């Protein structure tokens, strides 16, 4: 019996050992932010490079966490290892729908998005059952935009759901351009432009066509914990995003220099992406209601909100 | 009966599993954990039953198992050929050795970016990864098994004037069967893991996709209970294959013949 108790207590120890975490000391000015790469996240990079958070909140301890997709950001927030992150509206709503205690703090960007196919396909109807469509993941904004277009064209939003292949933007581009069974790729800047510059490929649907208007591609999200327990840091975070956006608008040249360093891309290319007509950096959250209504109607969400304040913090601008 | 004896029985595995489930449920109920990270057993079972009744989980499981069976078949056949040739020809043996030392430590997932470029993202790509994970451990076990066959057995074959095919079937395979079964067990486990990882990356290659795709889908739609349900299915299949399939195979061959 004694042996048995020893074994059991070792098991309990092992089971609980994984729960230890890097706890942030209460009351201190700390923030843990998910860092992602891409033109759509440009203000985040500016914020980091220019030390805007440090400027707005002296003495703040920032930890930038590398994350490569929104599912990982959500999981890190559930595990209380992350306070703020940037993502598209649909994955945010999925997290909210499943009981995550978080809201949108700010809009961030709208960039060109679109479905690229080889030129033998001219519209959605010509995609056969054999065609495979690469998206970053199911439930991503690209997937929901595709479902919106399918709903409008065929009255069946899930029409192409069984033909999705989950590939990151660069892998998706390689798969499309190599001419294998991936014949379509729903992607965004700068992969979109690279694919369209390749002979034999064209865009059959843009994000705005699918959505039926403009929408925020990326928004900034924070946990309730950060918002409630650390209002000073929360305010500094929003202020820093605002200043980063203003900086990109006022000094695109300098912004391009910073970003081309961070992303290892040619400066002229970055500048072209930043100043493209369809690229807009703004703190206003656009398209929230439309995404939510559509995802509820088609079963990607189980609930919706009466009032947008259920999903955005009080100071956040939004329009629909 | 003493408690200790309980854990020496063949069914001790299930007692441990029951204990772990109790520990799980107590943690989920009593500890301050988020149900998004640590759902209770009821939630997981509800998700599992819902997926069985309303979803495709059984079909997806069959799809994955089917792919692995085909992959195992191809892998074992290739391994058999290479191992036999290695036993017959020392030159070929050095070639096989080189291949094993190059490819055996290479995880299939590391090859993924290349496989996407070579053969795309369909079932063929998953099959390729399964064959890769099955082939090398199988070769290692088979060559070890063939080498361990006592010389006198082979001489008996010569005495009976067996041709090559006969001596393979009647001498080589039965005499090295415990090695072959050990190889099969390792290959099955590797193939199963590789298939699930590949599915989680490639997605619905066969229309509804496999069990890896099921878990991935649950993850991106933040259905944590569903993720655990998928993992439970994988564990259940693993235990079934280990206990029932391989258990029966061993009982009817090497244990019966007394070579194990």
Describe the structure.
The complex is a heterodimer of chains A (320) and B (260). Helix content of chain A is 43%, strand content 20%. Chain A has helices at 2-17, 42-50, 52-56, 70-78, 89-97, 141-154, 169-177, 191-196, 207-211, 224-229, 231-250, 252-263, 267-274, 288-297; strands at residues 30-35, 61-66, 84-87, 102-110, 113-118, 132-135, 164-166, 182-188, 201-206, 218-223, 280-281, 285-286, 318-319. Chain A has a five-stranded mixed beta sheet with strand order 7-6-8-5-9, with helices on both faces. Chain A is globular and about 65 Å long. In chain B, 81% of the residues lie in helices and 0% in strands. Chain B has 260 residues and is an all-alpha fold. Chain B has helices at residues 3-6, 12-30, 41-54, 57-88, 90-103, 108-119, 123-147, 151-159, 164-175, 177-202, 211-220, 224-252, 254-257. Chain B starts with a helix and ends with a helix. Chain B has one domain: Orthogonal Bundle (MetI-like fold). Classes of the chains: A alpha/beta (320), B mainly alpha (260). The interface between A and B is large, with 42 and 34 residues. Chain A: This is Putative aliphatic sulfonates-binding protein.
Briefly summarize what is shown.
Chain A: This is Putative aliphatic sulfonates-binding protein. Chain A has 14 helices and 13 strands. Chain A has 320 residues and is of the alpha/beta class.
Topology at a glance:
The complex is a heterodimer of chains A (320) and B (260).
Chain A (H helix, E strand, L loop, with lengths): L1 H16 L12 E6 L6 H9 L1 H5 L4 E6 L3 H9 L5 E4 L1 H9 L4 E9 L2 E6 L13 E4 L5 H14 L9 E3 L2 H9 L4 E7 L2 H6 L4 E6 H5 L6 E6 H6 L1 H20 L1 H12 L3 H8 L5 E2 L3 E2 L1 H10 L20 E2 L1
Parallel strand pairs in A: 1-2, 6-7, 6-8, 12-13
Antiparallel strand pairs in A: 3-10, 4-10, 4-11, 5-8, 5-9
Helix pairs in contact in A: 2-11, 2-12, 11-12, 12-13
Chain B lengths: L2 H4 L5 H19 L10 H14 L2 H32 L1 H14 L4 H12 L3 H25 L3 H9 L4 H12 L1 H26 L8 H10 L3 H29 L1 H4 L3
Helix pairs in contact in B: 3-12, 4-5, 4-7, 4-10, 4-11, 5-7, 6-7, 7-10, 8-9, 10-11, 10-12, 11-12
């Amino acid at each position: 019996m004694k042996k048995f108790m020893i074994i059991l207590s070792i098991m309990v120890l092992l089971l609980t050992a994984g729960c230890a975490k890097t706890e942030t000391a209460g009351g201190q000015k700390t923030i843990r932010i998910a860092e992602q790469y891409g033109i759509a996240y440009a203000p985040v990079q500016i914020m980091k490079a220019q030390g805007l958070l440090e400027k707005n909140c002296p003495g703040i301890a920032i930890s930038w966490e590398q994350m490569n997709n929104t599912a990982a950001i959500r999981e890190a927030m559930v595990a209380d290892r992350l306070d703020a992150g940037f993502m598209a509206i649909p994955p945010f709503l999925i997290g909210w729908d499943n009981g995550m205690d978080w809201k949108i703090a700010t809009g961030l960007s709208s960039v060109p998005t679109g479905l690229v196919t080889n030129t033998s396909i001219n519209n959605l109807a010509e995609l056969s059952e054999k065609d495979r469509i690469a998206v970053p993941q199911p439930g991503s904004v690209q997937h929901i935009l595709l479902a919106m277009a399918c709903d409008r064209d065929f009255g069946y939003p899930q029409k192409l759901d069984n033909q999705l292949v989950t590939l990151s933007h660069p892998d998706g581009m390689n798969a499309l351009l190599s001419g294998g069974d991936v014949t379509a790729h729903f992607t965004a800047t700068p992969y979109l432009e690279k694919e369209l510059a390749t002979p034999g490929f064209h865009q059959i649907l843009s994000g705005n066509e699918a959505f039926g208007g403009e929408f925020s591609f990326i928004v900034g999200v924070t946990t309730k914990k950060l918002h409630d327990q650390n209002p000073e840091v929360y305010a500094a975070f929003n202020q820093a995003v605002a200043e980063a956006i203003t900086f990109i608008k006022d000094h695109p040249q300098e912004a391009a220099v910073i970003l081309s360093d961070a992303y290892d891309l040619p400066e002229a290319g970055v500048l072209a992406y930043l100043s493209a007509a369809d690229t807009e950096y703004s703190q206003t959250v656009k398209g929230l209601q439309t995404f939510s209504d559509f995802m509820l109607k088609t079963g990607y969400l189980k609930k919706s909100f009466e009032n947008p304040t259920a999903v955005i913090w009080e100071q956040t601008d939004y329009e629909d | 009966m003493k408690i200790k004896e309980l854990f020496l029985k063949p069914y001790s595995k299930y007692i441990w599993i029951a204990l772990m489930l109790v520990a799980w449920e107590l943690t989920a109920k009593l500890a301050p954990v988020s149900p998004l990270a640590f759902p209770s057993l009821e939630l997981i079972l509800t998700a599992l039953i819902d997926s069985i009744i309303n979803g495709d989980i059984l079909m997806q499981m069959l799809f994955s198992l089917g792919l692995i069976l085909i992959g195992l078949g191809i892998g074992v056949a290739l391994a058999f050929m290479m191992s036999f040739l290695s036993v017959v020809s020392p030159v070929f043996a050095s070639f096989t050795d080189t291949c094993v030392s190059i490819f055996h430590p290479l995880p299939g997932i590391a090859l993924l970016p290349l496989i996407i470029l070579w053969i795309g993202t369909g079932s063929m790509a998953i099959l390729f990864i399964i064959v890769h994970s099955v082939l090398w451990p199988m070769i290692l076990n088979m060559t070890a098994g063939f080498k361990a066959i006592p010389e006198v057995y082979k001489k008996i074959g010569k005495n009976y004037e067996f041709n090559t095919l006969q001596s393979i079937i009647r001498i080589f395979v039965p005499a090295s069967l415990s090695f072959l079964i050990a190889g099969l067990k390792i290959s099955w486990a590797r193939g199963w893991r590789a298939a699930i990882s590949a599915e989680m990356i490639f997605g619905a290659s066969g229309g509804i996709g496999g069990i890896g795709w099921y878990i991935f889908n649950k993850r991106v739609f933040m259905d944590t209970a569903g993720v655990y349900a998928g993992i439970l299915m994988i564990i259940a299949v693993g235990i079934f294959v280990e206990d029932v399939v391989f258990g029966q195979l061993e009982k009817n061959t090497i244990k019966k013949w007394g070579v194990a």
